[in-house]
Design brief:
The structure is a single chain. This protein is α/β, with parallel strands linked by helices and 424 residues long. It has 4 domains: 125 residues, Methylthiotransferase, N-terminal domain (Rossmann fold, 3-Layer(aba) Sandwich), CATH 3.40.50; 127 residues, Transcription Regulator spoIIAA, CATH 3.30.750; 101 residues, Transcription Regulator spoIIAA; 41 residues. Helix 9 packs parallel to helix 11. The protein starts with 5 loop residues before the first strand and ends with a strand. It is built from 13 helices and 19 strands. The longest helix has 25 residues. The strands form 5 sheets. Strands 2-1-3-4-5-6 form a 6-stranded parallel sheet, sandwiched between helices. A 4-stranded mixed sheet has the order 7-8-11-12. A 4-stranded antiparallel sheet has the order 18-17-16-19, with no helix packed on it.
Length: 424
C-alpha cells in the first residue's frame, strides 16, 4: 500500500492566517495527507503568506530557497494574501509549483493531486470580487487557547491598506455556527477562545445562511457570554467606531469576556486620520478608552499606530506621541509605513524619509515599553486569574492574566491548561 503524502505548513502574518492554516491542515488530513513539522522532510510544503509586512516577497523567497536546498523534489504551494495580490510574481519564484488565491486555498487537496513536478507553476486565482464564501477556522495554541475566525474581508477603504484587495468584501459566519464551534472547542479542552477577523466589529453584515436573519457583533458577544462550557473569551481587535457602549458594558459585566481590548488608532492626528480614510476622529478614540477605564480600571488596552504616513509632519507626529502619552493605553503595536501598490497612499506626497519613519518608530516603541511597565506595576500585589500553558522552555510555563499581563513561573504539570489565582 502506498504511504500517505506528507504535508508541512508555515504561516506568515496575523492570527487570522494561523486559524486558516489550521483549518486547511485539518482538511488536508481528512483528504488523506499526513501532517509533518515544517522543519522536517515532507512531500508538500505550504506557505500561507501575508500582505501586511513589507518583507512578504523576501520572506517567501527565503523559505522557498530553504525548501529547495532541503528537499528539491518536494512540491511548494503558496497561498494567502500575498498570493492573491501578486500570483504571477510568486509563480516566477524558482521552486514554486502552485499558487492558490483566496477562492481556492480551501480546495488545496484537489489542486495538489493534479500537480506534476517539473511543470510550470500553476496559478489558481480569480478576481477578488468573485470571492464571496465564508470559510470558518480555528487554530489551537498548545490545546489551551484557540483563535476562532468569525469574520473575513473588509468593506473599508483605508488609503494605506491592501486587505480588501487580498480578502474581498466583508462576510461572516452565522451566530449559531460560531456558538457550535465554541462548544466543539470546549469539548476539546480549550479554555480560552480569541475571536478573530479582518474587521471583527463588522460581524454579521451579511446573511451566510440565506435565511433572512443576521446578527451584529454585540449580539454575538451576548450569545457567547451564555456558553457556560467556555470559561474565557477575548476580542482580538476591533475598530473604535464599531466598539459600541453595549459591547464595552457587556465585557465590564461579564465573567467570561476578559477585560482586554485591542483598538487600532493608527494616528493621533485628525489630519492624518482623514488622509488615511479612517472612520473616526481622535476624540472618539479617547472617548472609547475613557469609557473602558471608567468601567474597568484594570482593563488592558492595546493600540496599533502607523508612523511615517505620507504628509505626516514633525508636528503631526508630536501630536500623535503626546496623545498616546496622555491616553490610558497599556501597550502599542507600532508599524512603520511602507508603500503598497494599488493603494491611494502610494501616490500621496510629501513622502516621509525612511530614516525619519524609523526614528519615529523607535520613539513610540520606547513609549510602549514604558506604558507596559507602568500598567504591569499598577497591578503588583493583586491576585488575578491566570490561564497557564506550556512554554518553549521545558523548565518554565507561562500564561496571561485576565487583563493580559504575561506571567512566567517554574513548570508545574498540574497547572497546564488550568486557570489559577495568582498573586502578581
Amino acid at each position: 500500500m502506498n504511504r500517505p503524502k506528507t504535508v508541512a505548513f508555515h504561516t506568515l502574518g496575523c492570527k487570522l492566517n494561523f486559524s486558516e492554516t489550521s483549518s486547511i491542515s485539518r482538511l488536508m488530513e481528512k483528504a488523506g495527507f499526513e501532517k509533518k513539522p515544517f522543519d522536517s522532510l515532507a512531500d508538500i510544503y505550504v506557505i500561507n503568506t501575508c500582505s501586511v509586512t513589507e518583507n512578504a516577497d523576501r520572506e517567501c523567497r527565503y523559505l522557498v530557497r530553504q525548501i529547495q536546498r532541503k528537499s528539491p523534489g518536494s512540491f511548494v504551494v503558496i497561498t494567502g494574501c500575498y498570493a492573491q495580490l501578486k500570483p504571477k510574481e510568486i509563480a516566477g519564484i524558482p521552486g514554486v509549483d502552485l499558487v492558490l488565491g483566496a477562492a481556492e486555498k480551501f480546495n488545496m487537496a484537489a489542486h495538489i493531486r493534479e500537480l506534476v513536478k517539473g511543470d510550470p507553476a500553476k496559478i489558481c486565482s480569480c478576481d477578488i470580487e468573485q470571492v464571496q464564501d465564508f470559510h470558518d477556522g480555528y487554530s489551537l495554541s498548545d490545546r489551551t487557547r484557540a483563535f476562532l475566525k468569525v469574520q473575513d474581508g473588509c468593506d473599508y477603504q483605508c488609503s494605506f491598506c491592501t486587505i480588501p484587495l487580498a480578502r474581498g468584501k466583508s462576510r461572516s459566519d452565522s451566530l449559531d455556527h460560531v456558538v457550535e464551534n465554541v462548544r466543539e472547542l470546549a469539548a476539546k479542552g480549550i479554555r480560552e477562545v480569541v475571536l478573530t477577523g479582518v474587521n471583527l466589529g463588522d460581524f454579521g453584515n451579511t446573511d451566510p445562511g440565506g435565511n433572512g436573519k443576521s446578527s451584529n457583533f454585540f449580539e454575538l458577544t451576548q450569545a457567547l457570554n451564555l456558553v457556560k462550557e467556555m470559561p474565557r473569551f477575548r476580542i482580538s481587535s476591533i475598530e473604535p467606531n464599531l466598539l459600541t457602549n453595549d459591547i464595552i458594558d457587556l465585557v465590564a459585566n461579564s465573567d467570561r469576556f476578559m477585560p482586554h481590548f485591542h483598538i487600532p488608532l493608527q494616528s493621533g492626528s485628525n489630519k492624518i486620520l482623514a488622509a488615511m480614510r479612517r472612520r473616526y476622529l481622535r476624540e472618539l478614540y479617547a472617548d472609547r478608552v475613557a469609557r473602558i477605564k471608567t468601567l474597568m480600571p484594570h482593563a488592558a488596552i492595546g493600540a496599533d499606530v502607523i508612523v511615517g504616513f505620507p504628509g505626516e509632519t514633525d508636528a503631526d507626529f508630536r501630536e500623535t506621541r503626546d496623545f498616546l502619552q496622555e491616553l490610558e493605553v497599556s501597550y502599542l503595536h507600532v508599524f512603520t509605513y511602507s508603500e503598497r501598490e494599488h493603494t491611494r497612499a502610494a501616490g500621496m506626497k510629501p513622502v516621509v524619509p525612511v530614516s525619519v519613519r524609523n526614528e519615529r518608530n523607535k520613539i513610540l516603541r520606547n513609549l510602549s515599553f514604558q506604558k507596559l511597565q507602568y500598567f504591569t506595576a499598577l497591578h503588583a500585589g493583586q491576585t488575578r486569574k491566570v490561564l497557564f500553558e506550556r512554554s518553549r522552555d521545558k523548565a518554565m510555563m507561562e500564561g496571561f492574566t485576565d487583563n493580559y499581563i504575561r506571567v512566567t513561573v517554574p513548570y508545574q504539570p498540574e497547572w497546564v491548561n488550568r486557570i489559577v489565582d495568582w498573586r502578581l
